[in-house]
Each structure stands twice: as structure tokens, then as C-alpha cells.
UniProtKB/TrEMBL annotation:
The lineage of its organism: Bacteria, Bacillati, Bacillota, Bacilli, Bacillales. Keywords: Kinase, Transferase. Belongs to the carbohydrate kinase PfkB family. This is Fructokinase. The keyword Transferase applies. The gene is scrK. It comes from Saccharibacillus kuerlensis. It holds the Pfam family PfkB.
Length: 327
């Protein structure tokens, strides 16, 4: 089967044991592996497709922990390098009473940002493979160049590129630098995942349809627009497909978007969706792909954390069956 390569951030989220206090008042935290590309890689591995992460960890205890967690999740870590030049990235989180999150990131820089283009093997990828990336590692760094090289190499091999902008403003010096980096990389991707909260920020357009149309630039063939508990919409040049969300008791929405993307990409890998077949596959199989991805995202909200909250395929199928949606 084709392989997912996720490139970019892996870090430890320190989740507060108390809810409803400011970060400065939290006295105890629990560690959880995180970083959007790592979460997506773990989801794809869990659903049964080959999955690798391209990143760098510090030679510290937190790096040891993350490496073990990725391996336990079934992710291939042979391209996860180590360095003593920087520490593994950390993020401390506080949960407000209304469930919103505040972050304090420790990456000055973190080890992942030091992965350089010379450390990306240009012959790694094969036709049908998918490269997935986000925006938080597109700050000026060796890692930004590594993204450029990996994108170029996977395309040259006939693979697909998937981008989830995943806006995290505290990691940027200002909002404009974040927007600029996203707009630079967006046209290089074949598939874009964007959430309702990000669409207007990135496009500067308030009308949803117009904003989504504006994302079809460069190589973009499809846009998935996720709407939290409301589910998701998929746009291709031929149509717009809607899939309602599943009704679940949400506890913690961390990683829902990544679990959604993991479920979506798993189906594309299964169908060996090279760029010249992507639109056809999405037009023909949108229903089963969106339902699976929605169920994956929904079930992830029913447990704490991201990787640790990922459901297995049996749980996804049971949810789809219970709410009368077949895979
Ligand atoms: P992100 O986490 O990237 O901000 P969303 O919040 O839109 O993205 O969530 C991604 C997907 O996860 C949704 O499209 C949906 O399938 C699922 N999801 C998220 N929150 C819920 C929820 N409260 N109930 C059911 N499904 C959810």
C-alpha cells in the first residue's frame, strides 16, 4: 500500500490537571504526545496504512518518550532524527472554563525546526505516497527548507501533497507572517483541510463559498472544510459534498482535526490516489471517505489527548453503523 509521510512538528503537550485557571496558576500538568503531523501519522498507522514521520527530536528524555509513543502507535520512526543542538518542543496548555485553550510554547528553536533539507532523502517517495504538512513549522528555519525539498521530491515521484494550515498564532511574530507563509505553501498542495475558524483569517473573505473558491489556486484540486460537531464539506472542481457530524459526548477536542485528516488520508492511501486520480476518487467515494473521517474526528473528542484518544477501526465502524451510515 502507498505510504503516508507526515513532516513537521512533534512535541509534548502538558495538559493541566485543573480546569478553569490561568496558565500561571496551574500547579500540575499531565504529558501527552502532540504535534499535528505526528497525530495524523499515528491515526493513519492505527487505521492500517504504512505511516512515517519526518522530523527531529532533542537528545533528551522528552525525545525518548515521544519516540517510544510514536513507535507504540505504529508509526515508522526511521526518519526521526535526534540532535543535541536543541531540546524537544514543549507546549503548556491551560483550559478555560468554556473549554477554550491557552498555549505557552517552548521552542527557541525546538529540535524539529532544525531538520534541514540535506536530511531529506530526495529518493524516499514513490508514486501514490502522500506527504502531509501543517503551518507551524513554516517559520523561518531549516525545517521550512526541508518542507520545500520534501514537497518537490514527492511530486517528482508522482505522489500527493496534503496541507492543513492549522493556524497557531502564538508561534508567529505577527499574524501577517503566518498568513504569508500559509499562502506561499497553499498552492503547492493538491488537498487542503481548513476549519471554519481559519477560513476568513487565511483568505480575508467572509463569504464561505467565495473564500473556498479562492483556495483553488496552483495545484489545489480539493478543499475539505471542517465544521466541528457539524461535520465537514468537501469541494472539488466538480461538486460540493456535505457530511453531517456524528453525535458524541465531546470531552476534549484536542486532535479532532488531525484524526479527521488521518481518516481521510487513510482512504486516499487505500485507493492509491495519485494526483491525476484524486478528483475522480473524491467525486466517486466522497460519502464513505467523509463519514469515516467524521467518525474518526468525533470519537477522538470523547477521550483526553490526541494520539491517546484515537479510536480503532472497529469503533469507527460501530459508530457509523449506530447512526445508520455505512462505510
Ligand atoms: P480542528 O480540530 O482542526 O479545528 P474541527 O473542529 O472542525 O477541526 O474538527 C474536525 C472534525 O472532527 C470535524 O469535521 C468533525 O468530523 C469532528 N469533530 C470535531 N468536534 C466534534 C464534536 N464536538 N462532535 C462531533 N464531531 C466533532
Amino acid at each position: 500500500m502507498s505510504r503516508l509521510y507526515a513532516i513537521g512538528e512533534v512535541l509534548i503537550d502538558f495538559i493541566p490537571l485543573q480546569k478553569g485557571c490561568a496558565l500561571k496558576d496551574v500547579t500540575a500538568f499531565e504529558r501527552a504526545p502532540g504535534g499535528a503531523p505526528a497525530n495524523v501519522a499515528a491515526a493513519v498507522a492505527k487505521y492500517g496504512a504504512p505511516s512515517s514521520l519526518l522530523t527531529k527530536l532533542g537528545s533528551d528524555a522528552f525525545g525518548d518518550f515521544l519516540l517510544e509513543e510514536l513507535q507504540n502507535a505504529g508509526v515508522d520512526t526511521q526518519h526521526v532524527l535526534r540532535t543535541s543542538e536543541a531540546n524537544t518542543g514543549l507546549a503548556f496548555v491551560s483550559l478555560k472554563e468554556n473549554g477554550e485553550r491557552d498555549f505557552s510554547f517552548y521552542r527557541n528553536p525546538s529540535a524539529d525546526l532544525l531538520l534541514s533539507e540535506t536530511e531529506i532523502d530526495g529518493n524516499l517517495f514513490e508514486a501514490g505516497d502522500i506527504l502531509h504538512f501543517g503551518s507551524v513549522d513554516l517559520v523561518d528555519s531549516p525545517m521550512k527548507q526541508a518542507h520545500r525539498k520534501a514537497i518537490h521530491a514527492v511530486k517528482a515521484a508522482g505522489g500527493l501533497v496534503s496541507f492543513d494550515p492549522n493556524v497557531r498564532l502564538p508561534l508567529w511574530s505577527d499574524a501577517e507572517s503566518c498568513r504569508r507563509a500559509i499562502l506561499e505553501f497553499l498552492p503547492k498542495a493538491h488537498l487542503i483541510k481548513i476549519s471554519d475558524e481559519e477560513l476568513e483569517f487565511i483568505t480575508g473573505i467572509s463569504d464561505i463559498e467565495t473564500a473556498i473558491s479562492s483556495l483553488f489556486r496552483g495545484d489545489v484540486q480539493a478543499v475539505v472544510y471542517t465544521r466541528g460537531s457539524e461535520g465537514a464539506e468537501l469541494y472539488t472542481k466538480n461538486g460540493r459534498y456535505t457530511a453531517p457530524g456524528f453525535k458524541v459526548q465531546a470531552q476534549d477536542t484536542t486532535g479532532a482535526g488531525d484524526a479527521f485528516v488521518g481518516g481521510f488520508l487513510f482512504h486516499l492511501l487505500k485507493r492509491e490516489a495519485a494526483p491525476d486520480r484524486l478528483t475522480d476518487i473524491l467525486d466517486n467515494y466522497h460519502e464513505e471517505i467523509l463519514h469515516f473521517a467524521n467518525a474518526s474526528g468525533a470519537l477522538t473528542t470523547t477521550n483526553k489527548g490526541a494520539i491517546s484518544a484515537l479510536p480503532d477501526t472497529a469503533a469507527i465502524e460501530a459508530l457509523m453503523k449506530s447512526q445508520q451510515l455505512t462505510s
